[in-house]
Design goal:
The complex is a heterodimer of chains A (215) and B (79). Chain A is built from ten helices and no strands. The N and C termini of chain A lie far apart (50 Å). In chain B, 20% of the residues are buried. Classes of the chains: A mainly alpha (215), B mainly alpha (79).
């Protein structure tokens, strides 16, 4: 985030406006990140609040060797994990990942492609339509975000965790595998499936049912 | 490359994990298929939306709690 260094300095000086700016920028993502490790929205909110305490306690010694965003998100993950571990029937991500990956799954409903007898097998039968006439308005609109947030919550847990870490928090593949203790091959499949489902959910919301070419 | 294959390898493509030959086939297909162009755009837009900041997505009551949290921290000598 632009001006992070300045905000860190101001926070150290005790400026409330700096804290509010950081909260405005990061809090929602922190809750989403926590949510992929814990069982409820309420707990995710608590974890994010605890993480802010951690941020304030640690800001004096934050050296800026990692980015502020990465540092804040790491605090969230550590809190979320220890909170998640205390929950009944905790299942490690490595097991969830293996389970989710073991079932075959198509990125797009196979019905949307032409079959082997068609002149163009494997090509679109019900193609996607561009939603880019006004991408800013559509993608960033409150209701669109709300739909996306809902779809993210509905992902199976390992897919939700991988997509959140990669696309909400910006962690790279190695960091994700390390945080979740999963194999890279699994991580890639989970990322693919999670993103594919989210794209489908947004398409459904923005465009409705895809129209088929006349048969 | 056909459309069905494209939608399965798109994540490796976006993450830069496709072998050069497959990447070439992917790009060539995009030159020929406006529907897959739309699909790739949708995927990129979805990823961008996930990563974008949502400054209004905090409940007023939670914002109040956080402000109190900050003031407590300040009052106890910023420890």
């Amino acid at each position: 985030m632009h001006g992070d260094a300045k905000l860190v300095d101001e926070l150290r000086e005790g400026r409330e406006s700096a804290f509010e700016a950081l909260v405005a920028h990061y809090h929602a993502s922190m809750v989403r990140l926590a949510r992929s490790f814990v069982a409820s929205d309420a707990i995710a909110e608590e974890v994010a609040q605890e993480a802010w305490i951690g941020v304030l306690k640690g800001i004096a010694t934050f050296e800026g060797r990692s980015s502020l965003k990465r540092w804040i998100f790491t605090i969230v993950i550590n809190r979320a994990k220890s909170r998640g571990l205390r929950e009944v029937r905790f299942v490690p991500f490595s097991s969830l990942a293996a389970r989710e990956v073991s079932q075959a799954e198509a990125a797009v409903d196979p019905d949307r492609f032409l079959g082997p007898e068609a002149p163009w097998p494997g090509h679109w039968a019900a193609p996607p339509r561009s939603w880019r006439e006004d991408p800013e308005a559509m993608i960033l609109a409150g209701e669109t975000r709300a739909q996306l947030a809902r779809a993210l919550k509905e992902l199976p847990p390992a897919q939700r965790a991988v997509v959140t870490l990669r696309d909400v928090a910006g962690f790279d593949a190695a960091e994700i595998c390390n945080e979740l203790d999963i194999r890279e091959t699994h991580m890639r499949v989970l990322l693919h499936r999670g993103r594919s489902k989210l794209r489908a959910a947004l398409e459904q919301y923005l465009n409705g049912e895809p129209a088929r070419f006349a048969d | 490359m056909d459309c069905n294959e494209l939608v399965e390898v798109i994540t490796d493509y976006i993450e830069g994990r496709l072998a050069p030959e497959d990447r070439r086939r992917f790009d060539t297909h995009l030159l020929e298929c406006p529907y897959c162009v739309a699909y790739v755009e949708q995927m990129r837009d979805t990823i961008a939306a996930l990563g974008s900041v949502d400054v209004n997505a905090i409940e007023p009551s939670d914002r109040v709690k956080l402000v109190e949290l900050f003031r407590d921290w300040k009052e106890t000598g910023q420890r």
